[in-house]
Amino acid sequence: MKFYIDPGTGSMLFTILIGILGALRYVFKSWFVKLRFFLSGGRKVKDDGDNLPLVIFSEGKQYWNIFNPVCRELEERGIEAVYMTASEEDPALKNEYKHIKTLFIGTGNKAFAKLNFLNADIVLATTPGLDVYQWKRSREVKSYIHMFHAAGDVTLYRMFGIDYYDTLLISGDYQEKQIRDLESLRNLPAKEIVKVGIPYMDEMLRRFKNNPNVNQKNDKTTILLAPSWGPSAILSKYGKKIIDVLLETGYHVIVRPHPQSFTSEKELMESLMKEYPNSEQLEWNRDADNFEVLKRSDILISDFSGVIFDFALVYDKPVIYADTSFDDSVYDAWWLDSKLWTFEILPHLGMQLNADNMGKLKEMIDQCINEEKYAEGRKKAIADTWAYQGEGAKRVVEFIVKKQAELEDEAEN
Questions:
Q1: For residue range 214-241, what is the model confidence (pLDDT) as tens digits?
Q2: For the chain, percent of residues with pLDDT exceeding 70
Q3: I need a surface site. Which of 75, 239, 259, 279 has the fewest CB within 10 A?
Q4: Cβ 101 vs Cβ 82: under 8 Å
Q5: What is the value of pTM for the model shown?
Q6: Domains, the chain, ranges and CATH?
Q7: 288-301: burial string, b at 16+ Cβ within 10 Å, e else
Q8: How far apart are CA 195 and CA 175, in angstroms?
């Protein structure tokens, strides 16, 4: 007889198991420390075990562009770190660093089990949900630091995604207000908030400016459809209809779904890719690095995805954003009465697409590409959300060095 365990129950059982193992581990460790204390004649014994000064955790290869500039800065400064990834295909594993050790720690629960028992001073990650789902805070980690992996609202994480980090690295003042408002509503202790900028966008801008084909024009207008995922995203809302309309424009169309769509919306992706296979006019893009696909596109169509800001602010190109009747019920944004910054800034970056004007999409594309006012809107967005342009990785590493010094002082006193 076979038993079925649904994902929710599986997650709960995994959490219970980790809790039991954790409790046993710390009981045995406490006995061991007391034994060493007794054998040392009552002298205080420092027990660092396998303590790591800095751990960087990446949940997938798609986040390498986020960590790459930070790792390079650490390497250049000779700062020791361990980069742990839950993807065997993470490009970091191929780098021959002198000061950064790269490790594949397994996928899913295997990776979280490793993280839950870490002994480290600092853990830097972009993964939300610490101490909410399978990833639990280790008692032997002194400080958890979250670095956002997109420009825009921090409240577009799933609920409680950032509540239990110690430090948040942000890029705009409006983000700090959102964080403080959430803390107040949930009676959470104030987290340390440090404005550092956006390292990966700095890197994209550097690559873009240094690219020899930066000013090369396409033979045919190229449209990139790159939505977020979930019930409020473009492909869930409009599905085949928007692809049909895009093909009717006669322009070249690139469809780049969010990586999570291939996990959470697998049936939808399989259905669309089967009905609209790769052709001379249409291509599906799943590159781990989106640099090239953004560079060769003339205009982006998206929804509330952070790629809007990559495209508009780094590549200085217009966007069309879809009205998907955004449902914030699963996001931190649900808790706040204030309007999302994303939806306030979008009209400055391009035009809104909805079910009523979808038949005029070709005219909208042409107008957005040629309208000067959207260039001014992009400047406003940069001022709001991209602090310290070009200095992001440097500021992240400088903060890490400062935090390490603070932790050392605390340990000595």
A1: 667 788 999 999 999 888 899 999 989 9
A2: 88
A3: 279
A4: yes
A5: 0.81
A6: 40-198+390-412 (3.40.50), 204-385 (3.40.50.2000)
A7: eebbebbbebbbbb
A8: 10
